[in-house]
Amino acid sequence: MTTNPKTAIILGTGLGQLASEITDSYEFPYSEIPNFPVSTVEGHAGKLIFGKLGGKDIMAMEGRFHFYEGYNMKEVTFPERVMYELGIETLFVSNASGGMNPLFKIGDLMVITDHINFFPEHPLHGKNFPTGPRFPDMHEAYDKRLIALANDIAKEFNITLQHGVYLGVQGPTFETPAEYRMYHLMGADAVGMSTVPEVIVARHCGIKVFGMSIITDLGGFDTPVEVSHEEVQKAANGAQPKMTTIMREMIRRA
Asked: What is the pTM of this model?
């Protein structure tokens, strides 16, 4: 079977069910791909999938790599370099994140409009790859045309979307109440442990990006709330059908 995908998707925590929407698929375990790290986090299957979604050829990562797993940033973002070499032009990223915006509730979908990089290591640190300039512009890390398309689809399917700034941290601890409040004061609406390095490298490669977070827990408010990875997965799974609808329709129409 031949495939020529121009679109890639990264399926994050609890969002691997979207893979079941992919038809005519064939899979490669990360362990069988040269130089690919292996996912070590529960809920991340660790497979590269090629197939069709929304009638389009796509490439999907079922499970991503995180800085907190002990990988360096070159390893975390190696898949985006592979995407560039395969001719990928658009990347859809998804994640589970903690909400700090008082208007958010658990299970909300948040379209990422911008991000704040709070990782201790930058993914472009070191010798510059020839895929982009030494000092890449990041004024539109998340494609405005794709955001507008998502808004139109959400309205058509009566799905409520939040919009906000995603702040990326190294983890693996969930945030303290004070950290949640600090990040919100810095201008962030949601916080998570992924996505930002992937987006930076994708944009360095000239790949357009659309990002969406599922708000799986809330923090920084008057009453501290305990959170566990199991609760995050449960909330992500509950919101997955809405995200699947939007992602599938975006890929079909983009």
From this structure: 0.89
